[in-house]
Amino acid sequence: MSIHDLVAEEQPENFEFTAENEAEIIKIIAKYPEGRQASAVMPLLDLAQRQHDNWIPMKAIEVIAEKLGMAKIRVLEVASFYTMFNLKPVGKYFLQLCGTTPCMLRGSDDLSRCIKDKLGITSGQITPDGKFSLLEVECLGACVNAPIIQVNDDFYEDLDYDSTEALIDALSNDMPPPVGSVIKRSGSQAETGATSLSDILGSKSAKPSKKPDAKSKKTAASSAKISGV
Amino acid sequence: MPKLTVNSIEVEVEQGASVLQACEEAGFEIPRFCYHERLSIAGNCRMCLVDMERAPKPVASCAMPAADGMVISTQSDRVKKAREGVMEFLLLNHPLDCPICDQGGECDLQDQAMGYGHDGSRYKESKRAVEEKQMGPLIKTIMTRCIHCTRCVRFATEVAGVPELGAIGRGEQVEITTYLEKTIASELSANVIDLCPVGALTSKPYAFISRPWELNKTESIDVMDAQGSNIRIDSRGNQVMRVMPRLNEDVNEEWISDKARFAIDGLKNQRLDTPYVRKENGKLEAASWDQAFAAIAKNLKRVKPANFGVIAGDQIDAETMFAMKSLMEKIGSPHMDCRQDGANIDVSARGGYLFNTTIAGIDQADAVLIVGSNPRIEAPVMNARIRKRYLSNGLPVAYIGEKMDLTYPADCLGSDAQIIKDIINQTHPFSEVLKSAKNPMVIVGNGVLTRDDSQALLFQFSEMIKTFEIVHKGWNGFNLLHKAASRVAGLDIGFVPNNKTGKSAKKMLADAGDGNMGMIWLLGADEIDTSKLDNCFIVYQGHHGDAGAHAADVILPGAAYTEKNGLYLNFEGRVQETKRAAFPPGEAKDDWSIIRAFSAVIGQPLAFDTHDACRQNLITNFPHFAEIGQILPSRWKRVGKSGKISTDPIVPSLQEFYMTCSISRASKTMAESRTSRENYSNQIAAE
Q1: Is the dihedral of CA B226, B231, B236, B241 positive or negative?
Q2: Residue B568 in 3-state DSSP?
Q3: B4 strand-pairing partners
Q4: How many C-beta neighbours within 10 Å does residue B68 have?
Q5: What class, spelled out in words, does domain A3-81 have in CATH?
Q6: Is there a contact between A3 and B167 if contact means CB atoms under 8 Å apart?
Q7: Looking at B152-203, which runs of residues are DSSP E strands?
Q8: ∠ CA B36-B39-B41, rounded to 5°
Q9: d(CA B651, CA B407)
Q10: For B178, which of A58, A73, A81 is closest by C-beta distance?
């Protein structure tokens, strides 16, 4: 993959961190010992990506290199090494589909077929309206609730063809459904509810004690905490 | 000092040495691709695997520090099998294009595949292909061959000081590239060609030219700058094909500048291959040696010795200057100078015009002040040595002159000559640095020497040396950085205006303009103002039809540095020798022999008639020329004369790296390099 395939063809003229991010950068750099500012390269790349529609333009790489006293190529090396840094524009909803063994065994191929059917994109592609892009990734670490799609920062779990379709429809209308398990599983409990420790959790804990709040933006991990697992 | 056993041989190595070095010490060669003595350790090729007792698996010997009591085996079956595995992986994606690869015959991968490779491949999948990269006019890239040892990346970052190369992507997609594919803006860039263990980075001008086993190898010296980098000239038939660096820890380690390596295509262009005499009609016409000599002799008879002078250029060997000096003594003219640039050097003491610290001595320096020089341009390999010292101890460097990028952090103190006085009076902050330094260095460049007030400035440096004890027992921190390869030898044999009546090069040229010089013999001197030479009979002896030849009335074709055996003293005063790798073209002759032949024509034959005798004669007069590779130690003596210092800013005399002599000006490769570097600078400026 040459540099031209790796980075976006159309690059913005300029890049500047926002005032809040500039303040944040000072805090981040202060975490590292004097003379080791280069260690801050990854948090700064992350900040740049979050500020700039989820992808890092080359100008941002140059700005970061300047800030940290690094050579530009050193920053590019880091940015191009980690797949979670995007060097090309991604969709408003950046779908990361896990295709590693547990997800694959639980039907991640159906999910990718659904996305292809609904949006007409495969891994690495973006829809013409710029709303969705897809990347097949390695294990996202939520195998208990496989298969999974990560949408920007949020996990949607226990998906199948139909629920993926529903997810995409909701996202198309900019109405993101509640994050976490789409079959209302609590945390990583068995689908039928808790099967042990019933004396502590109470005999009525067969069903999730508290449904994830529809308006909540909490991640799957934090919703697991709420349900007391 | 750890003691360890390698294949049941006990060795003791330096603290901090690696297992690989210990194995070498014990006499066992370890295959490697990424490891290089002069670069940081990467440990990514895994070819140097060895067995270590009590280790569960083979260890990469380059990255494993040697420790007491280790028991290493380099010949076990497991080691062999492990290396074979590594080799198989390296060859998975490596193309089988050795027959069309320029590295063929001198390829580490090829050689080591003989020892550890399989006879066939088990790989059935498709190989990866990588786009070629743009790395300027010197480096050809075939990146599909790259095995990602990252030697080039480490060289650019650590030695050259231009962190422009990097490895982007990950896993199978890794590619070596420059940031947005720009050329590498370094004077040492082409050393990555030697470092590359495979054929990924090869020489662009040498592409598809020749095979290593067809070449005659001649060990010689580079004369493009005054450092005297050790080179190996590879020639086929009578043609110089390429120049490679030769190891010399005291001079150039194993690097050479791009000019030393690639200016050689200039040896094929614009060569003077027959004598010329300017006819009545003002045109230069080819002539025989006899006709040319007769024309000079006729003029010499017309001109009084007091109106005859010689100016030697920057690449003239010591024998030639010695022969010329002997001839001048016979003729009775005191006007000779080896300083065509008008450098006003105090020649009364040898210690006053040498790079006394020596290049290897830089490794002990703890403060550097550079005045009127840009070492990155004037002696790039030496500059890399300063950078190396900076990397090891954070060497504080400051300079007086225009702002420049030396590849390491250096303070620009300004370009006002007054700053020198401020430092001596300890009113300048840098005087603190000099005061606290144990081994400070002062490097004075041609930018100081070519000024009218150079003697007054040198006097100030003498003061500075006294004030800050820059010269003390076991340390001499006073350095003149010459840029002409012939300079120190010329000064040593006294090729300078002798006694009070002699005229310097500057004076000769000025007098020629006024019609007060009858005849000037230019010994390869091209970097002079030739516009004022119309009223003067000019003899040009040299190898290229450059400025000097255009102004000449008689042209005597001489030999370039690759075509003669000659002694050169580098700026340290180290005696080194060029060796003939090819013969001069056509009628051209060795320079000393031209002077010898002319001496016979005017009936004043010199006392030698072979090159050996000439050198012997030189050595009899100046015994230190016999010690090849050595420096005659010289004591420090005050230089300069007290005087008024002008307010002109100090600037380095050399602003241009690529085309500085008649050879490099005739070189297409150097012209391309210059253009590409200019484009690069413009691009940077535009950003």
Answers
A1: negative
A2: strand
A3: B11
A4: 9
A5: mainly alpha
A6: no
A7: 165-168, 175-178, 201-203
A8: 75
A9: 18
A10: A73
Q: What is the DSSP string of B505-548?
A: HHHHHHHHHTT--SEEEEES--SS-GGG-TTSEEEEEESB-SHH
Decide if B156 touches A, using CB distance below 8 A: no
Which of B163, B170, B181 lies at the smallest CB-CB distance from A71? B163
Residues 6+ apart with CB under 8 A from B270: B544, B545, B546, B662, B666
Q: In angstroms, what separates the C-alpha of B445 from chain A's closest C-alpha?
A: 30
| B359-382 pLDDT tens trace | 999 999 999 999 999 999 999 999
The 3-state secondary structure of A162-218, one letter per residue: HHHHHHHHHHHCCCCCCCEECCCCCCCCCCCCCCCCHHHHCCCCCCCCCCCCCCCCC
User: For residue A74, what are its two tokens?
Assistant: 């050193």
> What is the amino acid identity at position B286?
A
B168 vs A58, A80, A83: nearest CB: A80
**Rounded distance between C-alpha atoms, residue B367 and residue A125, angstroms:** 56
CB B659 within 8 A of CB B671: yes
Give the residues across from A78 on adjacent strands: none
Cβ of A71 within 8 Å of Cβ of B167? The answer is no
pLDDT for the residue A1: 59
Q: Do A76 and B175 touch (CB under 8 A)?
A: no
Rounded to the nearest 10°, the torsion over CA B191, B196, B199, B202 is -10
CATH ID of A93-181, from 2.40.10.340, 3.10.150.10, 3.30.830.10, 3.40.30.10 = 3.40.30.10
- Tokens 């997810």 — which residue? A167
Give the tokens for residue B500.
Answer: 């009070």
Cβ–Cβ pairs < 8 A, chains A and B: 46
> Using one digit for the tens of pLDDT, what is the confidence trace for A189-215?
888 888 888 787 665 544 444 444 444
What pLDDT, on the 0 to 100 scale, is given for residue A216?
44
| DSSP β-bridge partners for residue B337 | B311
Considering only CA atoms, which of B129, B569, B560, B520 is closest in space to residue B350? B569
Q: Are the Cβ atoms of A2 and B175 closer than 8 angstroms? A: yes
- Joined tokens for residue B683: 């691009």
B412 touches B399 (CB < 8 A): yes
User: How far apart are the C-alpha atoms of B325 and B195, rounded to whole Å?
Assistant: 44
Give the residue extent of every domain in chain A: 3-81, 93-181
Containing H/E element for B370?
strand B367-371
Nearest to B468 by CA among B515, B436, B512: B436
Query: B173 to chain A: which residues are within 8 Å by CB?
Result: 1
B481 touches B443 (CB < 8 A): yes
Note whether B401 and B467 are within 8 A (CB): no
Beta carbons of A6 and B157 less than 8 Å apart: no
> With a threshold of 0.95, does the pTM exceed it?
no
Average pLDDT score, chain B: 93
Closest residue of A to B174, CA-based? Answer: A1
DSSP helix/strand/coil, B113: helix
